[in-house]
Amino acid sequence: MDFTFVSGNLGLDLAGTVGQRRNERVEMLASPRDLGRWVVAAGLLDTPPAVTGDDLRHAVALREAIYRLATAARRGEPLPGPDRERLNAAAAPPPTGVTLAADGLERTGDLSAALSSAARAAIELLGGPLRDLIRECEAAPCTRLYVDASHRRTRRWCDMRGCGNRAKAAAFRARHQQ
């Protein structure tokens, strides 16, 4: 399964590793290997880190905390204390290291550094001015959260190439079947 990074924030992209939350959940982090692949696909590390079952459970708990926090922020509700504590704890370790090597950029660290980077991105979003731009994709059954950075703040879908295209095609078909 390929990962998508269309949320406009790395923390929201981690939260987006579950699809269709209100229907038949699509779990993209089903194994430790999947988490290692996500870390590389997200551009956090150059090579997959060692990931244990406990690491996966920790990452999934972080993912769910980010989702609940972002959903609360989107609705204008108070941010749940236990989820804030989990997010802050995940952000505490040093983030992924980056250096400029002779042949380009090198990203180094372990899984905790990668998750710290994702947690820090979520904190920046939830604690900053973009917090009010968190939206949920309107395409059924998608439940991805994203930052609406569009000019008029009228973006409706997490990704125009995926959900937006399917929604527009369905609307076109419905108009032409009548």
TrEMBL record:
Comp. bias intervals (Basic and acidic residues):
75-87
Top-level division of the source organism's lineage: Bacteria
Q: Give the Zinc finger CGNR domain ranges.
A: 134-176
Q: Which InterPro entries match?
A: ABATE, ABATE_dom_sf, Znf_CGNR
User: Which region ranges are annotated with the description Disordered?
Assistant: 75-95
Identify the PANTHER family for this entry.
Answer: BLL6575 PROTEIN
- Protein name (database record): Putative RNA-binding Zn ribbon-like protein
What is the species of this protein? Actinomadura namibiensis
